[in-house]
Specification:
alpha/beta; Transcription Regulator spoIIAA; four-stranded mixed sheet; about 35% strand
Length: about 90
């Protein structure tokens, strides 16, 4: 199960916990589409327990587009770093 908490005040901070898989990626994409483009966005990933390939690719694209990934678990960070250069 995925849990998303949103905090704002000029910057939008999504605290995400649980699993991020294909269906959750779709929900995150929907939420991001609702945000104003000029806002600074961040994901706090400290409590993410499981991701699949779609989720890692999504997170890598988010980071490449300027979304900050905060407190990213090491195993997820390593996987994202492996994808760098392949995601456009």
């Amino acid at each position: 199960m995925l849990r998303i908490d949103r905090a704002g005040n000029g910057r939008v901070l999504f605290t995400i916990s649980g699993r991020i898989e294909t269906e959750e990626v779709k929900e995150l994409q929907r939420l991001l589409a609702l945000e104003a483009s000029e806002q600074q966005l961040s994901f706090v990933l400290q409590d993410v327990t499981l991701v699949n390939q779609d989720a890692v690719e999504f997170l890598a694209r988010c980071e490449a587009s300027g979304i900050r990934l905060k407190q990213c678990p090491r195993h997820i960070r390593r996987w994202i770093d492996q994808l760098k250069g392949r995601i456009k």
